[in-house]
Amino acid sequence: MAASVPLSRSTPRSLTSFCSRFAAPSPHGGPRFVSFARNPSWRRAAASMSIEAPEKATNLSFLDRKESGFLHFVKYQGLGNDFILVDNRDSLEPRVTPEQAVKICDRNFGVGADGVIFAMPGTNGTDYTMKIFNSDGSEPEMCGNGVRCFARFIAELENLHGKQSFTVHTGAGLIVPEIQTDGKVKVDMGHPVLSAADIPTKLSGNKDGAVIGDELVVDGVAWKVTCVSMGNPHCVTFGTKQQDGLQVDDLHLSDIGPKFEHHEMFPSRTNTEFVQVISRSHLKMRVWERGAGATLACGTGACAVVVAAVLEGRSERKCVVDLPGGPLEIEWREEDNRIYMTGPAEFSH
Ligand SMILES: N[C@@H](CCC[C@H](N)C(=O)O)C(=O)O
C-alpha cells in the first residue's frame, strides 16, 4: 500500500480529524526516519500524519519534517499479514496507544493493518525489543509474520545489507530472525509450550498436561483440538469428531472463528487454525486470529499447526504450510525441540 499522506490545506476534513486523534508527540524532536531518504520506495510509501495542516511551504519531504505531532510509519506484510511499523528505538514506551492502534488499523477509516509493531531498544541483553498491538488494541506476546517484517524494517533503518541476524526480546522470550541472502527471513521461534495451564486452556489434557486431539464443543459440534502455545495461544483442529478431514475452503470462518476465540475454555482467548492435510509434508490452513479475525497468514499459527500435526501423527516435522497469503516453511527440529519458520516479509508498496 502506498500510504503517502501529505497533509495540506486541501486535506479532506475526515482525514485531518482522524489524524488528530492519534498524533504522537516526538520526545526528541528530531527526524525519526532519516534513513527513509536512502530508499526511494520508502520515500513514496512511508507516511506521517499530523494534527494540523502544515502552514509553511518547505522543500523537505514530509517524511523528514521535525515537528512534533507527526507519527512516522511504514507498512510491511508477510504473506498478506500486514503491519504498521513504528521506529521506537529511543524508548520502551510505545508511540501509539492501544486505542490509537485500533483507529490506525481500521481498514475503512484508518490506514488499515492487522497490527501495529514497535521497534524498541533491546532488553535483557538483546539487540531489540518487539512490541505489537493487534488491530483490536490487545497486546499479543508474539507474532511470527510480524517478527519477519520487524527484521526487514530494522535492516532498512540501520542500513544493513545481506545476511543479517538479530536477537529480539518479545513477550514470548528471545526470538532470533535471520535475513537470508534471498531476502526471506528464517526465524528461530523457540520451543512450543504444550502444558494446558501455560497455553492457557481449561481443557484438562493428558497425563503430561498436554491437550492433544481432545474434544471441544463449539456451538453444539464436537471438534477435535490440539492446543499449543508459541508464546501466544493456538487451538489447532483437523476436523470434528464426526468428520476428520477438513476442506478448509468450505469453512465459514467468520461464523465459527469468534466462537473458538471467545470459548470459555480459553481464558486469554485463542488463535484458531483449521487445517487440511495435503500430504505428510504439506498442510493447508486457514486462521482466525485472536484480536484480528481472519488474516491471510499467521506465522505462530503455522508453527503451532506443524507441532499439532506431528503430535497427532499426521505429518513429518518439516512441512510446507499453505496459508491464504502463500506458503511458509516450518520445521520442528527433533534435536533441539526448536521451531524454525522461513518466509517472506516485504515492504508494502
Ligand atoms: N499474525 C501473527 C500473530 C499475531 C498475534 C495474534 N493475533 C495473537 O493475539 O496471539 C503471526 O504471524 O504469528
TrEMBL record:
Which EC class does it fall in? isomerase
Keyword terms, alphabetized = Amino-acid biosynthesis, Isomerase, Lysine biosynthesis
Record-level Gene Ontology MF annotations: diaminopimelate epimerase activity
Q: Where in the cell is it found?
A: Plastid, Chloroplast
- The catalytic activity of this protein is classed by the Enzyme Commission as 5.1.1.7
Which GO BP terms apply? lysine biosynthetic process via diaminopimelate
Q: What is its main location?
A: plastid
What GO cellular component is one of the record's annotations? Answer: chloroplast
Q: Which domain of life does this protein belong to?
A: Eukaryota
Q: In which pathway does it act?
A: Amino-acid biosynthesis; L-lysine biosynthesis via DAP pathway; DL-2,6-diaminopimelate from LL-2,6-diaminopimelate: step 1/1
The entry's protein name is diaminopimelate epimerase
Organism source for this protein? Colocasia esculenta (Wild taro)
